[in-house]
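FW: tagging you since you asked about this chain on Friday. Here's the raw sequence from the shared folder, copied in full. Didn't touch anything.
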Amino acid sequence: MTDSSSDEDNEIWVYYKNREEWKDLRPIPQDDGPTPVVAIAYSQKFTDIYDFFRAVVNAGEKSERALALTADAITMNPANYTVWQYRREILKALNKDLHQELKYIGEKIKENSKNYQVWRHRQIIVEWMGEPDEELALTAAILAQDAKNYHAWQHRQWVISTYNVLLHSDRGLQDPRVIQWCEQLYNTGCTSPHLLAYLIDVAIESGEASGLERALQMCKDLATSYDRIRRTYWDYVARGIVQSQEKTNEVNHTASASPNEISPDTNQPEVTDGNLSEISTPVSATPT
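HL: got it, structure written out here
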């Protein structure tokens, strides 16, 4: 029995139960019990694939054909945790090339960019490899299509915090390429809390008065409109910015005053170039 109704490449689909190379394995039907609450009408193709997947798991088989079977199962249901987990076990058992797996999961993410399991699999493979080089470009491509994609923002934040990718240069958060890209997103109307938190950090790190004013406004926007569930947190960040402004103003006033205007106070720390940044640096907006 074959099926070609849903295949994008128009190739004739051969059911696993009709494939000679799978004759040695008896498929295991899904058991929903004698009186299932809801009987789901699975397609014949879905049933065929998952019956053989259950048989493979039951046999503990970790082979090339089992790996190919997981790919078919994922195509039918990319949200199935068990399939992804077993695929990872096969990858380890066969010592597969993880660069090829990154390419594979990259395609799956493009097809299912709002699916948690595809991003989780990507994260685990990156952890195994210890190579996050492609992740910012991938998330940038996904966010260019949907600037509010929560999973893409989460993955991007994970990469940055885990591998310090923004700190590979001395510019850190002030990398012009990163700032420009995020500003473009913001100007298109994206109000993701992750994006605004980054722009607040950029403004804080710059130390410029206009930037701090902008950061305060963003904190207000987050607290009242875009991230109200964490209103208390954004109010706290805003207070830190205000305190930083006040300390900076005091330091600037002291530095510009004439010697006769300064009253000696042995209880106050001496302001030097070495501790000026320490005095004026406020709390980061990015949650830990």
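FW: The chain has three domains: 12-96, 97-164, 173-254.
HL: agreed, and The longest helix spans residues 231-256.
FW: great, closing this out.
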